[in-house]
Every structure is written in C-alpha cells, then in structure tokens.
Amino acid sequence: MSTRRRTSHGPGTPVPSLTVRPLDGCRGVRAAGEIGLATHTIWERVLEQAVREGEGVYYLELSEVTFVDVAGADALAAAAERLGDGRRFVVRRPPPALRRVLEMFWPDLPTIEVSMS
Predict the structure, then answer these.
(1) Tally of domains in the chain
(2) How confident is the prediction along the chain (117 residues), in pLDDT tens digits per residue?
(3) Of these four, 12, 20, 21, 105, which has the most CB atoms within 10 Å of its CB?
(4) Structural domain for 73, as ranges
(5) If DSSP codes are grouped into helix, strand and coil, which group holds residue 55?
(6) What φ, ψ does residue 10 adopt, rounded to 5°?
(7) Domain-located, residue 9
C-alpha cells in the first residue's frame, strides 16, 4: 500500500502530503509527511485497514511524520478502541506533540503502545 494525496493550496504554499508504505519484516506501515486536514482520509483508511487485518500487533512507524493534528490523534485512539482483545498498535517514534496528546487525552488506553526506539 503506497498512498499519497495532495490538495490545492495558494501559490507558494507547500502542499501537505502523507505517504504510507508497508513495513518490511512485520505487520504495519511507515508514514511520512503530515497527518492533518488535507491527508485525514488517507490516515483513516490506514487505520481502518489495520483494524480489519486482525493482527495481534500492528506497527505504525511515524519517525518521518512531521505533524499530527488533534483529529489525526483522535482517529488513532478511535481505531485503537475498536481493536479486539489482546491486540494493540505500537506507534514507533511519533512526533513529540502526538505523544503528549495521547498521554493527555488517552493515558489509560491499553491498545496503544508508544515506542521511542
């Protein structure tokens, strides 16, 4: 799965994008870019696919993600709440703001594990 979305913005304005590709060696994806209004549909599709796949652990490598808005964090938490028993997302190297938002609003959500390594 490799997905990229661009939207129209004013002249000289960088176009937010999100690129997603499968991880090598484990179930999950590597995302690069921004998770915001312009790329929210891509992010939700990625999370919905992860929920449907039924794997025990699904990795979200976010070290190349530069921004996640609150709606993107909410979509992650909502998807994590739909995971079945014993399943979880491992969010690797998220942007610091995402880690803080998850700790602030969903501190006891056992289906999201944040890994900085």
Answers:
(1) 1
(2) 555 544 445 566 677 899 999 999 999 999 999 999 999 999 999 999 999 987 899 999 999 999 999 999 999 999 999 998 899 999 999 999 999 999 999 999 999 999 998
(3) 20
(4) 18-115
(5) coil
(6) -65, 165
(7) no
